[in-house]
């Protein structure tokens, strides 16, 4: 699989209830038991199974993204070291050439008497002193040539060792990335197999339960007072948000960062990059490195993180809504902020002032269509 699962026209969109509702109710998040018959599972059990599989898939996706970013940085490091090593080897070659010329001069006996003896025998002491000065300069240049050769060999050896280690690290990361890619594909295959086994009735019940769960989770979240203020975004936050809105309708694809498809952190990192500010690639890094803000102080453009491990992220739209790339099989869309269990929020530009005269972006038609929790796939149900 390339990251998108097979879509079949004319089928129902499969959905699972929001993670926030399931967690709040204390429902266990256990993966399907070995040998457990699909047709014997209750719809709530199917929901938790789907939730577990999708969450595991997104966790694996963010691990893959993190390794991919480390690999990119490692490749740049290898390139820099190789460039420095090439320059050091050229300089070493030149130093060896100069040292060779020095050795030949010494072998040919270019000076038979010491400068002191020449000074004693000279008819013109001043001329001898001048010659001695020249000889001292030549001697100093010879010492410098030998020193450059020694330093050059040391630097070249050190850089060669560093380049070899950096390349080994790169190969290790590449192998880890391959394992993580295989892990994502395996988990997506498990999701596809489960969804393809469901009947039309099960699909309809799943969609109904998801809608009810999302609405209840959002009602409780708003009632808690967590979103008690309305603030205008910064200029950069406004630009990031508008970029995200322009991506609505584009498909989720794991590991993707546009322009045709996105995963959750691919969307948020690219939105802020287009606003002129680079932020980390993965949701975990965004949570760990960006400044956190209370939910009551959210402003459009801020990033909302989800789940205890910060494995999902969306960009705050305002009025309790986010723009997000939900899960495989879904598309970038507008969702209630509590469609997934909220961990917290971060702000990429905490020192920037809110802009004046802000107007929210106009949303395209169908911006809220589809699964809010992102557990939907277009898969033909079993008969």
Short structural summary:
With 383 residues, this protein is an alpha+beta fold.
Describe this structure in words.
A six-stranded antiparallel sheet has the order 1-6-2-3-4-5. The protein is of the alpha+beta class. The protein has helices spanning 19-25, 43-107, 115-121, 125-196, 200-223, 235-246, 264-274, 283-289; strands at 291-293, 303-306, 312-318, 321-324, 333-336, 342-347. It starts with 18 loop residues before the first helix and ends in a 36-residue tail after the last strand. The chain is built from eight helices and six strands, in the order H-H-H-H-H-H-H-H-E-E-E-E-E-E. Helix content is 54%, strand content 7%. It has a domain at 67-185. The protein is globular.
Walk me through the topology.
Elements: H1 19-25, H2 43-107, H3 115-121, H4 125-196, H5 200-223, H6 235-246, H7 264-274, H8 283-289, E1 291-293, E2 303-306, E3 312-318, E4 321-324, E5 333-336, E6 342-347
Helix pairs in contact: 2-4, 3-4, 6-7
Keywords:
383 residues; alpha+beta; six-stranded antiparallel beta sheet; 8 helices; 6 strands; 7% strand; disordered C terminus
């Amino acid at each position: 699989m390339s990251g998108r699962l097979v879509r079949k026209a004319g089928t129902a969109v499969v959905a699972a209830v929001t993670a926030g509702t399931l967690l709040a109710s204390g429902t266990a998040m256990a993966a399907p038991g070995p040998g457990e018959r699909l047709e014997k599972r209750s719809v709530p059990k199917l929901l938790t199974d789907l939730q577990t599989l999708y969450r595991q898939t997104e966790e694996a996706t963010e691990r893959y993204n993190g390794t991919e970013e480390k690999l990119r940085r490692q490749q740049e490091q290898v390139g820099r070291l190789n460039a420095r090593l090439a320059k050091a080897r050229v300089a070493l070659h030149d130093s060896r050439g100069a040292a060779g010329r020095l050795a030949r001069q010494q072998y040919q006996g270019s000076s038979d008497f010491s400068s002191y003896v020449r000074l004693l025998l000279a008819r013109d002491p001043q001329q001898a002193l001048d010659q001695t000065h020249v000889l001292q300069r030549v001697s100093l240049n010879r010492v410098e040539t030998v020193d450059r050769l020694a330093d050059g060999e040391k630097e070249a050896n050190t850089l060669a060792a560093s380049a070899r280690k950096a390349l080994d690290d790169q190969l290790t990361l590449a192998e880890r990335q391959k394992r993580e890619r295989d892990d994502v594909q395996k988990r997506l295959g498990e999701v596809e197999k489960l969804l393809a086994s469901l009947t039309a009735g099960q699909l309809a019940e799943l969609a109904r339960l998801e809608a009810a769960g999302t609405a209840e989770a959002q009602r409780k979240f708003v009632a808690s007072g967590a979103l008690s203020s309305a603030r205008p975004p910064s200029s950069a936050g406004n630009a990031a948000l508008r970029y995200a809105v322009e991506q609505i309708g584009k498909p989720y694809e794991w590991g993707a960062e546009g322009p045709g498809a996105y995963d959750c952190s691919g969307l948020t990192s690219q939105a802020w990059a287009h606003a002129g500010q680079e932020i980390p690639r993965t949701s975990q890094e965004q949570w760990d490195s960006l400044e956190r803000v209370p939910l009551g102080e959210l402003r459009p453009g801020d990033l909302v993180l989800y789940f205890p491990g910060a494995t999902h992220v969306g960009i705050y739209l305002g009025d309790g809504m986010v723009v997000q790339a939900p899960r495989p099989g879904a598309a970038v869309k507008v969702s209630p902020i509590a469609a997934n269990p909220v961990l917290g929020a971060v702000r990429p530009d905490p020192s920037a002032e809110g802009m004046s005269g802000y107007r929210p972006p106009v949303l395209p038609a169908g911006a809220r269509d589809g699964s809010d929790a992102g557990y939907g796939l277009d898969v033909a149900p079993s008969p």
